[in-house]
Specification:
Chain lengths: 244, 343
């Protein structure tokens, strides 16, 4: 059994049938572009663009991955086509990596759009690109695995969408994307630090503006453990709930 | 607590030791599955022999689909063991999935993909290289009469076509055993006939088939051996002949004759007092016996009287009658469930 063939074909099918469809591509382009344009028109300064870029990048990934994965997996579960994957002789963790891989790639593509737009509006030569790329990858992973966690918890497609928003919208305000965590009421701040996006956004801020508050050697491992933990917990739940 | 399974009473049960099951491709031993306090599968044991079509016949909720789920890795058993080619795969169902094919009761292919893409994708799940899976997909589309529809999206297929493509997807990796869950439920008569023919062909080509069905006639027509399952328990296993023989309380011979003289029936009764003989009309006789009926003396007697016999037929009980007698379930109930499922 050549598992690589199965892995690649699951990934490729999801990319072509779900993620690279015109509505998703246009959403992936328009959404971050609109946010960048809105803030640019409001501020009209290059400095503000650099300050906003980490938040817009993180948000683009979060919105591009979480609900997409939750919806596609719930949809496949409802139509029973997911059963076909469970019947294949592929290890469950490899299967779920293939299923989530498409969303991770899609999330990373979404992140490129605001960076490209930003590069036309401001000077990004001082940006620490390795840290940006690393954080984009890890944010895409944690957001995708959050979508996986959601898909295991729900039964209907509309529930997946609603449940995704339950996590996503608080993250916009609590993770320091547009408002510094230090500006939040003190009793809310601990919440920020139990959300993975806080660490991802902080790495991006550090790499783009040098304004991060946490050292990279803290944020990267924490983000990695969030990703690994969400994936492992989702796998545990899948084995418990889907293979009855 | 593990319960002993009431294994087939007819024919005499084969010894259950592993060495004596060499003819069995798949063996289930005392499988138990509970859902929230309800025992869906209750100590089920059976063996599926290489090259046969093994039927699971029972009403809705009998445990047919749950048994398939246990055997194919979609569910975990609470007790019992499963063997494929003599190897225990109870705790490692992934190991067995490479040589198992599954066709569920509802199509589970991808609406967005066309027929050809669905087949090649399913082959890829089993690690089949690109050229081989494309060749196999084309072969199957042709075999199942779907070549013209190969480039149409699956969502545009009729129910019968969907079922055919789902069966094709189930055998794309050339499994040794194919599980078919209610393959003809909810489709039109023509498609059902075609699918039955395809199942027969697959079996002739060497695929062992495990088939669940509501349709008594389907089981009768296709299966080499049949298990009756009710409330999660197998209550009989046997070949059609064995099941019939057990419940054949009397031998019934029906004779079609060209023309009968008026005194034929009384004279037959006098000559063959062990038989109960009824004249059905001037062209038919019905001979009933508690034991065997010897045909030759009867035919000779009739020939001497100048009566020409055009047809002699041994009347057997139908599988439906046997099912009703064994399970106590009215076949009408199954029929209603079947109709309900269609709706």
């Amino acid at each position: 059994m050549n598992a690589r063939i199965a892995f690649w074909n699951i990934l490729r099918k999801d990319m072509t049938t779900y993620y690279l469809k015109p509505p998703n591509i246009s959403w992936g382009l328009i959404f971050p572009f609109a946010w960048m344009l809105m803030f640019y028109l409001r501020s009209r300064t290059a400095l503000d663009i650099r300050a906003l870029l980490p938040g817009v990048v993180a948000m683009s990934i979060l919105f591009g991955t979480t609900s997409m994965l939750a919806v596609t997996i719930t949809f496949e579960r409802r139509s029973r086509s997911f059963e076909r994957l469970l019947l294949a002789p592929i290890d469950l963790s490899l299967l779920m990596l293939a299923k989530t891989g498409g969303a991770v790639v899609f999330g990373m593509i979404n992140a490129v759009v605001p960076i490209l737009v930003g590069s036309f509006l401001t000077d990004l030569s001082a940006v620490g690109w390795p840290a940006v790329i690393g954080s984009i990858f890890l944010i895409a992973c944690t957001s995708t695995f959050l979508g996986l966690f959601i898909s295991v918890a729900v039964h209907e497609v509309f529930e997946a969408q609603t449940f995704s928003n339950f996590f996503r919208f608080p993250m916009l305000f609590l993770c320091g994307l547009f408002f510094p965590i230090a500006a939040l009421p003190i009793f809310i701040r601990p919440l920020s630090y139990i959300l993975p996006l806080t660490y991802g956004a902080d790495i991006l801020k550090q790499a783009i503006n040098g304004e991060g508050v946490l050292p990279l050697w803290v944020s990267f491992p924490v983000l990695f453990f969030f990703a690994a933990g969400l994936f492992a917990f989702s796998l545990y739940n899948i084995r418990r709930k889907w293979v009855l | 607590m593990k319960r002993a399974t009431p294994r087939a009473e007819s024919p005499p049960p084969a010894p259950r030791s592993r060495t004596d099951n060499s003819g069995e491709l798949l063996t289930a031993e005392d499988l138990v599955k509970r859902f929230e306090g309800v025992t869906a599968v209750d100590g089920v044991s059976f063996g599926v022999r290489r090259g046969e079509i093994f039927g699971f016949l029972g009403p809705n909720g009998a445990g047919k689909t749950t048994t398939i789920n246990l055997l194919t890795g979609l569910a975990r058993s609470d007790a019992g063991s499963m063997y494929l080619r003599g190897e225990d795969y109870t705790s490692n169902q992934k190991k067995a999935q490479a040589i198992i094919g599954v066709v569920p009761d509802e199509s589970n292919l991808y609406d967005e993909l066309d027929g050809f893409e669905n087949l090649t994708f399913c082959a890829a799940l089993y690690g089949t290289p690109r050229r081989k899976r494309e060749r196999r997909a084309n072969e199957l589309l042709e075999q199942f009469g779907l070549t013209q529809a190969g480039k149409r999206p699956f969502k545009a297929y009729s129910k019968g076509m969907k079922r055919k493509l789902t069966i094709a997807a189930g055998i794309i990796h050339e499994p040794q055993i194919l599980f078919l869950d209610e393959p003809t439920t909810g489709i039109d008569v023509m498609s059902a006939r075609q699918i039955r023919a395809l199942i027969g062909d697959l079996n002739h080509e060497g695929t062992t088939i495990f088939l669940t069905t509501h349709y008594i006639e389907e089981a009768e027509r296709l299966c080499h051996r049949i298990a009756f399952i009710v409330d999660g328990r197998i209550i009989r296993i046997g070949s059609l002949e064995e099941l019939m023989r057990e419940h054949q309380r009397e031998t019934v011979l029906q004779l079609a004759i060209a023309e009968a003289p008026d005194e034929l029936v009384p004279s037959l009764r006098e000559r063959f007092p062990a038989y109960s003989i009824q004249g059905r009309d001037e062209r038919g006789l019905r001979v009933v016996s508690d034991g065997e009926i010897e045909l030759l003396p009867l035919l000779e007697f009739l020939a001497r009287d100048g009566v020409t016999v055009t047809e002699a037929r041994l009347i057997r009980p139908s599988l439906e009658e046997v099912f009703v007698r064994v399970t106590g379930i009215e076949s009408e109930r199954m029929r209603q469930e079947r109709e309900g499922k269609k709706k």
